[in-house]
Amino acid sequence: MKAVILAAGEGIRLHPLTSTRPKHLIPVGGKPLLEHLLCSVKAAGVDEALVVIYYMADQIQQFLGVGTRFGMKLDCILQSGVRGTADAAGLAEDYAKEDFLLIYGDLLVTPEIIKQIIHSHKRENPAATMAVATLEHPEQYGIVKLDGPQVVDIIEKPSPAKAPTDLANAGIYALSPGIFKKIGKTRSSPRGEREITDSLRLLIQEKQSVLAVQVPSEEWLDVGRPWDLLEANKRALKQMEPMNNGQIEDGSHLIGLVNVAKRARVRSGAYIQGPVFIDEYSDVGPNCFIRPHTSIGKNVRIGNACEIKNSVVMDDTRIGHLSYVGDSIIGKNCNLGAGSIVANYRLDGKTVKMTVKDEIVDSERTKLGVFLGDGVKTGINTLFMPGLKVDQDSWIGPNLVVHRDVQSNAFLLLKQEVEKHER
Fold it and tell me: Which architecture, in CATH terms, is 241-412?
């Protein structure tokens, strides 16, 4: 069975991180999201895939190559715009002459889930098989209504009061080639896109068999909002193997699941509590505290007496001494001045809200820091309040408290008035 992976979307809800990269290439647990997915697809026994791309397509093509590094045969096809999942899947008509796997490219899933879908489809031989997951807020997804294992309806993002079940469309399908005729008949949705769920509904209306397979939500994650990246990073780190190939100085303490890559350096006095990943050429310490669920990219410098907790720090970033970063994503080539502090907890202890796609959204997390785009710089003693976004290439001056989102290429300085008095 071949796979078709949909990786054309921009990921607007993940700005500012997607201002400079497609969401599928955001690193978690030391690898881009798309690589984690390909590894799961490969481990499920599928070694050929067509990747549908559009937004920053060149980056994905360059990353994938022909698939040799993944032990797969990979091809890419360019979608002409953001036209929906049905339009994207339809591009595979010449590629998929037999039953095939269709999967959204921004998922973090285990190989077992993919195997479960494939095996069920081969055993029952329906027109389509789709994964569904029980979620706390399924109304944010397509809601699937069942009669036994048969799908009888798919309702896109209903209000909570009108959601017939708590089963959400999990974005993994096994499909017969007959789906392409239904894709050809699929009309655009109100938002102007052709959706694969509408194609499936055409199958259902013709009384063709569409089966649902319920998958465990702890083995499936849709990475759509900024804080989902922290959960994805946490899950990915738990799956890695401990390996210390770098330079570990005497006086360092590595506790639990810690992976230090070749040519990385951990200086004396560092206390690293896994799961933690430190990539090549990075330099940590001395006297740092790296707390669980932290990923440090390539060529990163973490200065003296810093504390990093539950965060992703991307390549070529510098975090100056005496700084604290918690529950945050720090983009590539950032430079945080000495004493930069991320506040990740509200004084009143309530959950942290963020602006996502121009709407204020409750993260439902009591601990949430900042999301910095690439190239952000801060002066000494900069303080970030919880749940903020700073877009790419912005500069934040010293001693400034950042209490709202910052747009790209901004330059913020604290205006100080000095009064001079005679003694």
Answer: 3 Solenoid (2.160)
pTM score above 0.90: yes
Q: Supply the DSSP string of 190-241, one letter for each residue.
A: TTS---HHHHHHHHHHTT--EEEEE--GGGEEE--SHHHHHHHHHHHHHHSP
Compute the Cα dihedral for 183, 184, 188, 192 and give only its sign: positive
Work out whether strand 128-134 and strand 100-104 pair parallel, antiparallel, or are unpaired.
unpaired
Residues 52 and 73: their CA atoms lie apart, in Å, by 14
Structure tokens at 268: 């004396």
Architecture of domain 2-224: Alpha-Beta Complex (3.90)
The ranges assigned to domains in the chain are 2-224, 241-412
The pLDDT of residue 113 is: 96
Q: Which among 103, 138, 123, 132 is positioned nearest to 215, based on CA atoms?
A: 132
Catalytic residues, by residue number, are: 321
Alpha-carbon distance 127 to 3, whole Å? 16
CA angle 3/157/7 to nearest 5° reads 30
